[in-house]
Write a structure and sequence with these properties.
The complex is a heterodimer of chains A (514) and B (189).
Chain A (H helix, E strand, L loop, with lengths): L9 H9 L8 H24 L1 H25 L6 H6 L3 H14 L4 H19 L4 H15 L5 H9 L3 H27 L5 H16 L2 H19 L34 E14 L2 E3 L4 H4 L12 E17 L4 E12 L1 E4 L3 E4 L5 E3 H9 L18 E4 L4 E19 L5 E20 L5 E5 L8 E14 L4 E12 L10 E3 L2 E12 L1
Antiparallel strand pairs in A: 1-3, 1-15, 2-14, 3-4, 3-5, 4-9, 5-9, 6-7, 6-8, 9-10, 10-11, 10-12, 12-13, 13-15
Chain B lengths: L4 H9 L3 H22 L3 H18 L9 H19 L28 H9 L3 H12 L4 H8 L3 H21 L14
Classes of the chains: A alpha+beta (514), B mainly alpha (189).
C-alpha cells in the first residue's frame, strides 16, 4: 500500500508512488546478462591469444627453460659410468632409470608402471626377505606419493625390491632429483634406451623377473640395486664437461652513414667555339634619294626603292659563360661576323662626259663621306650635270664585317641531363669593321670604321634557342638557333641612309665546362 | 542494503563479475520497475533490463562520481527503453490529440490507497505514446521541451499526449472508484 501523502499534485503523487518502485527481475535476466558478458570476454581473449608476441614470448621462455634445464641437469650428472650416456645426451642417463618402468609397458604413463612394479615387488620381497614386508609397504607409499609427479618411479621401484631402509631414502632423493628428466623425456627417451645399454638391460630383466615372481629375478634385482647405489654414491660433484651457453649477440654497429653532403657546386664556367652559318641582311634604306639621283628629271624611278637581300654569311664565335644556378647562366663572347648581302637599287647614273657611273647606294655613300680619302668620295662629283640615269635593275654586293660582343642570359631546361635546352636572350654590341660595296662599274668600294660613315658600334638585340648535348662530363655540343636584330642604325645619325641589320643563324659549337 | 558505491563502481570498472552481480542485485529491482513502466509486457521489460545492464557494464568507465550512481543508472535504463520503443515503432506516429479535461482538480487527488502494481498496470495500459510521455514527464520529471527533443516530436505533441495520458489515468482511477470511499477493489496483478 502506498503511504498517504500530503502532496495532492497529480504528478507528484504518481512520482512518489512509482519512483521508488521496485520489482525483482526473474533470474533469467541475470543469466542472460552473464552469458552476454562471457561472450564479450571471449571476444577479447582470442585476440590476446592470437597475438604472435605472446607465442614468441612463450617459445622463448620454453627455450630458456630447456637450455637452462639442460645445463642444470648436466651439472647434476656425476662422472660414473652412466656418464657415457650423459656426455652424448645430458638427459639420457637419468631417463635410463625411468625407462626401466616405461620399457615394459611401452606406455608413457609411468605412474601406472611404477605401481605395477611396486605391487610386483611385494611378493618378491616377501619371498626373499619376509621380515621386511613393512619396509616394502612403506616404499610403496613412496611410489604412490611420487606418482603424482610422474617422477623416477623406476628408481623407487628398485628401492622397494631392495631391502635396506636407509637406501630407500636415498632413492627417494634421487628420484626427486631426476624429476625434471622424467617430465621431459618420458616417451622419447624410451626409444633412445640403446644409449645406455648396461643399465637398460638390467632393469628390464628385473622388471620381467618381478612380474614372474621368480626368486632368481630377485637376485638380479639385487644387482640392479648395487648399480643404483653406485649412482647415488657418485652423485656428488665431479668433473663434468661444462656446457657453456654460447651467446651470439647480433648487433649492428652504428655505421655513420655519411650524408652525401651536397657540396655546393662551385660556379661552373664554360668556354665554347663555334661556327654559325647565317643569313645576314643589312636592311639598308635610303631615306632620301642622293643628289645625283634626285636631280634626274628624266627618271622618277628614284633609286630610293632599293632593297637589300640576304646572302650566305657566317660567323665564327667564341664564347665564355658561367652557370649561376641550376637553370640560369650568363654568357658572353667574341664573334667575327661576315655578313654578305646584295643590294638592288634599280638603275645607275652615268656621266655622259666622264663616263663615270654610280649606283644609288654608292652615290649615297659618296654623299655621306667627309673624308677626302674615302674611296666613295671619288664618286661624289661629276653627276650633277649631264648625268644620265640608266634604268637597269642591277644587284650589287654589299658585304659587311663586324666584330660582335654578345651578352646573353640563358635559362636551361633539363640541366645536368644528357639533353638540355636553353632559351637565350640578351644584347649584342656590333663593332663595325668593313663594308665592301660593289660599285656600278664593278669596283669594290671598301668602307671602314675610320671613314665615319658607319657607326663604330651599334646595338642589337639577340635571342635564341640552344640544344645542348653532353658528350662527356666536360664536353658538350651545342646547336643554337639565333636571331639578331640591330636596334640602332648602322649609319651615323643625321644621314640619309639607314640600316638595321638582322640575322638568322644556326650555330654549331662545342663547349668545354670546367 | 549496505554497500560501498565507490567500491562497487570500481569493481565494475575492473570488470569484476562479483561487483557486476552486486550492482545488479542492488539496483536490478528498481531498474526493472522502470522497464516495466515503459514496456507493454514483461518479456520486453526483461529484454530492456538486460540490454541496459550490458550498456551499464560496458560504459561504466564513463560514469563520473559527481552524480549519484542511481541517477546515472536510471538514465541509462530510460534511454535503453526509449531505444527499444523506437525499434518497436511505438513512438513513430505520435501526434497532437484533442484533450478534453475531465475537470478533476489536483487538490482532491490522492493515490494513497492504490497499490504500486495497480498503478503500473494503469500506465502500461495507456497508448504507447501517452505511456512514454507520462513516464518521462510525471515520473522521471523531464520537461516537455526535453521530451520533445528526446523523442523528436514537437513540444505541443508532448503536452497533448501528456494531457491525454492524464485524462485516461484519471478515468481509470475513477473507474476504480477510488477517491473518497476507500473501498477499492484491487485487481489482481
Amino acid at each position: 500500500m502506498m503511504d498517504p501523502s500530503n502532496i495532492n499534485n497529480f504528478e507528484d503523487q504518481w512520482r512518489k508512488a512509482l519512483q521508488e518502485a521496485s520489482e525483482a527481475p526473474p533470474p533469467s535476466v541475470w543469466e542472460g546478462i552473464e552469458a552476454r558478458l562471457d561472450k564479450e570476454q571471449e571476444k577479447v581473449v582470442p585476440m590476446w591469444w592470437q597475438s604472435p608476441k605472446v607465442w614468441y614470448a612463450a617459445a622463448s621462455i620454453v627455450a630458456l627453460l630447456l637450455v637452462g634445464g639442460g645445463l642444470w641437469l648436466s651439472g647434476l650428472k656425476t662422472g660414473d659410468k652412466p656418464q657415457v650416456a650423459v656426455n652424448t645426451k645430458p638427459a639420457g642417463v637419468s631417463e635410463g632409470e625411468s625407462r626401466e618402468a616405461t620399457q615394459k609397458a611401452a606406455s608413457p604413463n609411468e605412474s601406472l608402471n611404477t605401481e605395477r612394479l611396486a605391487t610386483a615387488s611385494e611378493p618378491q620381497t616377501s619371498s626373499i626377505k619376509p621380515g621386511q614386508q613393512q619396509s616394502s609397504e612403506s616404499k610403496t607409499g613412496i611410489a604412490a606419493t611420487s606418482r603424482g609427479k610422474a617422477v623416477g618411479k623406476g628408481g623407487s621401484a628398485f628401492a622397494e625390491t631392495k631391502n635396506p631402509e636407509a637406501e630407500r631414502q636415498e632413492v627417494a632423493v634421487a628420484a626427486s632429483v631426476r624429476k625434471p628428466f622424467a617430465d621431459k623425456g618420458s616417451v622419447n627417451e624410451v626409444i633412445n634406451t640403446s644409449s645406455s645399454p648396461i643399465e637398460n638391460a638390467q632393469p628390464g630383466e628385473i622388471a620381467a623377473a618381478k612380474v614372474t615372481g621368480n626368486s632368481y629375478a630377485a637376485a638380479l634385482a639385487d644387482q640392479s640395486q648395487t648399480i643404483s647405489a653406485q649412482l647415488l654414491a657418485s652423485l656428488p660433484y665431479s668433473d663434468l664437461d661444462v656446457y657453456v651457453q654460447k651467446r651470439h649477440v647480433f648487433f649492428r654497429p652504428q655505421i655513420e652513414i655519411e650524408e652525401p653532403v651536397k657540396e655546393k657546386k662551385p660556379k661552373e664556367y664554360y668556354a665554347g667555339l663555334g661556327v654559325m652559318p647565317a643569313s645576314f641582311n643589312p636592311d639598308v634604306q635610303l631615306k632620301e634619294a642622293p643628289m645625283a639621283f634626285s636631280a634626274q628629271s628624266v627618271s622618277q624611278r628614284r633609286a630610293t626603292t632599293g632593297s637589300s637581300e640576304a646572302r650566305a654569311s657566317y660567323a665564327v664565335q667564341t664564347q665564355g659563360g658561367v652557370r649561376l644556378s641550376k637553370h640560369w647562366s650568363v654568357e658572353t663572347g667574341i664573334s667575327y661576323l661576315r655578313g654578305n648581302s646584295a643590294y638592288e637599287g634599280g638603275g645607275y647614273v652615268l656621266n655622259a662626259y666622264s663616263n663615270l657611273s654610280s649606283n644609288v647606294l654608292e652615290n649615297a655613300l659618296a654623299g655621306l663621306t667627309t673624308s677626302a680619302n674615302s674611296p666613295a668620295a671619288d664618286k661624289a662629283a661629276g653627276f650633277n650635270n649631264g648625268a644620265l640615269y640608266i634604268d637597269v635593275a642591277k644587284k650589287v654586293s654589299n658585304n659587311y664585317q663586324y666584330l660582335q660582343l654578345p651578352v646573353q642570359a640563358g635559362f636551361t631546361l633539363n640541366p645536368d641531363k644528357k639533353f638540355s635546352y636553353s632559351v637565350l636572350g640578351g644584347m649584342m654590341a656590333n663593332f663595325f669593321l668593313v663594308n665592301e660595296l660593289e660599285s656600278a662599274s664593278g669596283e669594290i668600294i671598301r668602307t671602314t670604321a675610320s671613314d665615319d660613315i658607319y657607326r663604330g658600334m651599334n646595338w642589337a638585340a639577340t635571342t635564341g634557342l640552344r640544344l645542348n648535348y653532353k658528350l662527356s662530363s666536360n664536353w658538350a655540343a651545342n646547336l643554337t638557333g639565333s636571331y639578331q636584330k640591330a636596334v640602332s642604325s648602322g649609319f651615323k645619325s643625321n644621314q640619309s641612309l639607314d640600316a638595321h641589320p638582322y640575322l638568322y643563324g644556326v650555330s654549331w659549337s662545342v663547349r668545354y665546362s670546367f | 542494503m549496505t554497500f560501498n558505491e565507490q567500491e562497487l563502481v570500481k569493481g565494475c570498472k575492473q570488470r569484476n563479475r562479483i561487483a557486476q552481480k552486486q550492482l545488479y542485485d542492488v539496483f536490478g529491482g528498481k531498474l526493472f520497475a522502470i522497464c516495466l513502466r515503459y514496456t507493454k509486457n514483461r518479456a520486453d521489460a526483461e529484454d530492456v533490463l538486460q540490454d541496459a545492464f550490458i550498456k551499464i557494464y560496458e560504459n561504466i568507465d564513463s560514469f563520473r562520481a559527481d552524480s549519484p550512481l542511481e541517477y546515472w543508472l536510471r538514465s541509462v535504463v530510460v534511454n535503453t527503453a526509449l531505444n527499444h520503443l523506437r525499434q518497436q515503432k511505438y513512438l513513430k506516429e505520435l501526434d497532437d490529440i484533442d484533450v478534453h479535461h475531465n475537470g478533476l482538480s489536483d487538490r482532491e487527488f490522492t493515490l494513497g490507497n492504490f497499490q504500486m502494481q495497480q498503478l503500473m498496470e494503469m500506465i502500461r495500459e495507456l497508448p504507447p505514446g501517452c505511456q512514454t510521455i507520462f513516464n518521462l514527464y510525471a515520473i522521471e520529471g523531464y520537461q516537455h521541451n526535453e521530451i520533445a527533443q528526446m523523442l523528436g516530436i514537437s513540444e505541443g505533441t508532448s503536452k497533448s499526449q501528456y494531457s491525454r495520458a492524464r485524462t485516461l489515468l484519471q478515468q481509470k482511477l475513477n473507474k476504480e472508484k477510488r477517491f473518497d470511499d476507500g473501498s477499492v477493489q484491487h485487481k489482481q496483478f
